Amino acid sequence: MARKQPDPALRATLDEVKAVYAELEKRPLQRDCQMRTQCCHFRLTGKTPFLTLGEAIYAAQGVRASGRKVMKPHPEGACPLLGKEGRCTIYAHRPFGCRTHFCQPAGGMYPRKHIADLIHRLEALDEKLGGDGSRELEPAVADALDDR
Ligand code: SF4
């Protein structure tokens, strides 16, 4: 059976989010995420990534690709997308906030002045899609999963 293709609007959304993430990778700021997942333990850090709508849609695509259809709360209050083996289950689709994270061993938070243009692109996409601005990861991705 032929694989269902994403509609053009969805494809454009995903392409823009991917382009922003690819641009971030090219920035000359050295970061070394070693997947220690410290930043994924929300209850411990007291910090949760916020996502624009395009990011949430892209993350939801990653959730579906991992074989899940819903978000289940993590038993220890960590990110619901943190797998049992302690790894992000949507690493390639992880949101911008997870890439510019607050993990000190990985280099600490990106200075905003170096990524403000990328944040603006994600916000512009959110507005274009009719989003409500950045939202907490769990409800943002859960709603994006519901909408497709
Ligand atoms: S999406 Fe992945 S990298 Fe981001 S907080 Fe959740 S588990 Fe961690």
UniProtKB/TrEMBL annotation:
UniProt xrefs under InterPro entries: Puta_zinc/iron-chelating_dom
Species annotation: Prosthecobacter algae
Protein name, per record: Zinc-or iron-chelating protein
